[in-house]
Amino acid sequence: TFSQKNHKVVLFPGHGIGPEISQAVCDIFSATKVPIDWEHHEIYTKPINEAGDLIKEESLNAVINYKWGLKGPFATPIGKGYRSLNVTMRKKLNLFANVRPCKSLAGVKTPYSNVDLVTIRENTEGEYSGLEHAVVPGVVENLKIISQPACENIARYAFEFARKNNRKKVVACHKAGVMKKGDGLFINTCKKISSEYPDIEYTQEQIDTVCMKLSKNPEVFDVMVMPNLYGDIVSDLCAGLIGGLGLTASGNISHTCAVYEAVHGTAPDIAGQNKANPTALLLSGVMMLKAMGLQKEGIAIEDAVTKTLSEGKFLTGDLGGKASTTDYTKAVIGHINL
Amino acid sequence: TFSQKNHKVVLFPGHGIGPEISQAVCDIFSATKVPIDWEHHEIYTKPINEAGDLIKEESLNAVINYKWGLKGPFATPIGKGYRSLNVTMRKKLNLFANVRPCKSLAGVKTPYSNVDLVTIRENTEGEYSGLEHAVVPGVVENLKIISQPACENIARYAFEFARKNNRKKVVACHKAGVMKKGDGLFINTCKKISSEYPDIEYTQEQIDTVCMKLSKNPEVFDVMVMPNLYGDIVSDLCAGLIGGLGLTASGNISHTCAVYEAVHGTAPDIAGQNKANPTALLLSGVMMLKAMGLQKEGIAIEDAVTKTLSEGKFLTGDLGGKASTTDYTKAVIGHINL
Ligand SMILES: CC(C)[C@H](C(=O)O)[C@@H](O)C(=O)O
Ligand SMILES: CC(C)[C@H](C(=O)O)[C@@H](O)C(=O)O
C-alpha cells in the first residue's frame, strides 16, 4: 500500500528442493498479503574464493542491511577446501542465538502428542570454534571455547524469549561435572542471569539426563538453553519427537539481524519433482514474520498449516500422503483467514 | 565345587540405594549358583588424597588382578577438589570401550516396542580429556582429543562385538562436517577398519541426524559406535526409549579387565527403604557373566527378569508397581530355571 514500506528480505532458495519450497513460501506469503519484497541471493556449491566461502560478501551485507534473511537447504560440497556455510554465516553476522521450537502438530502422528519445546542454542562457539590441529600425527586437538560474553548473551536471550512467549521454565543443559571450567562457566552465567527473571523457573540439568528425559517424557521441559554442540543434537532429537526436520522452524538471531532457515537436507532424490514438503521453511518464515511484528499474517499462515495438516487431505509423501508441493501450497492458501 | 575355581569379582556397592540393589544382585547370583566370590570395596564420598581421588589405589589394583568389577551408583561430592570417579577409573584401567545395550523389555510400556540398540562409546578421550583452562578471565578452552589408537581400539571393538553378537550393522556417529580433523580421524579410522569386516554393513551418520532418527524411528539402527561425549548422550537417549536408566546395563571394557555398572543415580529419596529397582545393576551383572563365559547362568537370570517384568505382579515403584526390592528379588529367583 501507499503508506506502508515493505520489508526487504534476502531469500536464499538453496539447492535440491530448495527452489520449489521457496516458491511455495513466496506464494503463500503473497496470498497472505505479507508486506515483503524478496531479494534472491545465491549459495554456491563450490568455494568462490581462497578462503573457501560458499556465499558472497555482498549477500552477507544484504542481510545486515535489510535485517532479514530466509534460507532453504543447500548442498555441502564434497571434499576439502570449503568453509561450512552455516558456521560462517553465524560467525560473520554474529547470529549468536539459534532458536528451534518443536510443537506437536495436529495431523502428524508420532508416539508423543504433547511436545512443546524450544531449544535455544548458543550459535557461535563451543566445539564449533574451527580451531583444531594435529599435535602429532594421529592425535587431534579441537578447542572447545566457552566465553562469558557468549554465555551472557544466550542466557539473557533465553529468559527474554521465555518471558515474551509466556513460557514458565528455562533449563540450562550442560556437562559441568566433566567440563568443570567451560560448562561450569556456562551454568554459572545462566544462574546469575536467572536471578533477574524471578518470574521464570530456572533449573540446570546434565545434557545426558536431558536427552534421557526427552525420549522418555518430553513434556517435563519447556525452554532449554545450551552450548552450541548440545543444541545441535537436542534440537534434532526434539524434531524427531514431532515428526522430523521437514516440519520444524529455525531462527538464527543477532542483535541487529536474523536468518531463518529450514534445517533439513536438499533431498536430491525428489528435487524438481514437485513432491517436497515446504512446511519447515514456511514455519521458519512465520517465525520471521512474528519477529517483524507481523503477528496477524504469521498467525494466519500458522493456522492454515495446522488446518491443512490436521485435515490430512493434501499431505506430501514424507507424511504418508500423495499431494504435490503445489497441491499442499494451494490447500494452505485456501485456509488463509485474514 | 571342588574342581572349579570361582571367579573373584570386586563389588562396589556404592551409596544411596547402591547397597540394597547390590544385595539383590548377590542374592539372585547365589540362587543361580553363579561361581563367583565377591570382594567388597568402598567408593568414598570425599576425596581421600591430594589428587582428589574417591577410590583407593588398592581397589583399582584389585580390579586389575581379578579382572572383574561390578559397581553400584555413587554420590558425587559437592564442590571442588575431587576427580570424577568414572573418568578416573576409565582412564587408569584403560577401560576404553563403554558398551550400553538397550532392548525393549516386555512388561515395560514405552512409545517404542522394538528397540534393540547397542551404544559403543569411546571411553577415554574426546571432551573428557580433563584438559581445560581459562585463556583470559572469562574465556575457557577445553581440549577435545581424538587419537588414532583410541579410534582403532573402539572401531575394532565395535565390529568384533557386532560379529560375536550376530548383529548386522555398525554406524559410526560423528560431526566431521564441523570437526573435520578430529571427528574426521574418527570416521576415517572406522571406515578403514570396516573393510576387515565385510560381513557387517557399515555406514556413517552425523550425530544430530542419529538423534533425530532415534527419537523418530529407533529401529533403523543396530550397533552404534562413537566418540566419548556423543556416547554419553546417545546411550541415555536410548535408555529413555526403553524406560530409563533403571533398566539398562553398562560395561566398561579394557583389553584385560572390565567394570560393569548401573548408570542411574543413588536415589537418596528412597534409599534404605527397600523400594529400589535392582534391574540395571542385575543386567550389568548378566553382561559380566556372559563375558566370563557363564552363558547358562547369564541367560537364566535374564530370562527370569523378563518373566518377572512381563508378569507384572512384582514391579517396583519406578515401574508403577508396589513391590519392594526384596519382593522383586524373590520373584526373579522364583523364575530362575537352570
Ligand atoms: C550443517 C551443520 C554445520 C549445522 C550445525 O551443526 O549447526 C546443522 O546441523 C544445523 O543444526 O544447523
Ligand atoms: C558421571 C559421568 C562422568 C558419566 C559420564 O559422563 O561418562 C555418566 O554420565 C556416564 O554416562 O557414565
Structure description:
By secondary structure, chain A is α/β, with parallel strands linked by helices. Chain A contains 10 helices and 12 strands. Chain A has helices spanning 18-31, 57-66, 85-92, 148-164, 182-194, 207-216, 228-242, 279-292, 295-311, 325-334; strands at 7-12, 36-40, 68-71, 97-103, 116-122, 132-136, 139-147, 169-174, 201-206, 223-226, 251-253, 258-261. Chain A has a 10-stranded mixed β-sheet, sandwiched between helices. Chain A has a two-stranded antiparallel ribbon with strand order 6-7. Chain A is globular. The first copy, chain A, starts with 6 loop residues before the first strand and ends with a helix. The mean pLDDT of chain A is 96. One 3-isopropylmalic acid sits between chains B (84, 86-87, 232, 263) and A (177-178, 208). One 3-isopropylmalic acid (IPM) sits between chains B (84, 86-87, 232, 263) and A (177-178, 208).
Essential attributes:
12 strands, homodimer, 338 residues, 10 helices, binds 3-isopropylmalic acid, alpha/beta, two-stranded antiparallel ribbon, globular, 10-stranded mixed beta sheet
Task: Please give a quick description of this structure.
The structure is a homodimer of 338-residue chains. Chain A is 38% helix and 20% strand. The complex binds 3-isopropylmalic acid (2 copies).
Helix-residue proportion of chain A: 25-40%
Quaternary status: homodimer
What is the chain-wise order of helices and strands of chain A?
A: EHEHEHEEEEHEHEHEHEEHHH
Q: What's the overall geometry of chain A? A: globular
Structural class of chain A comes to alpha/beta
End-to-end Cα distance of chain A: 16 Å
Bound molecule types: 3-isopropylmalic acid
Uncertain segments of chain A are none
* Annotation, overall tally of beta strands of chain A: 12
Whole-angstrom Rg of chain A: 20 Å
Task: Compute the average pLDDT of chain A.
Answer: 96
Instruction: Give me the side-by-side strand order of the main sheet of chain A.
Output: 2-1-3-12-11-4-5-10-8-9
**DSSP strand (E) fraction of chain A?**
15-25%
Count of runs of 4 or more consecutive helical residues of chain A: 10
Largest binding interface between chains: A-B, 58 and 58 residues
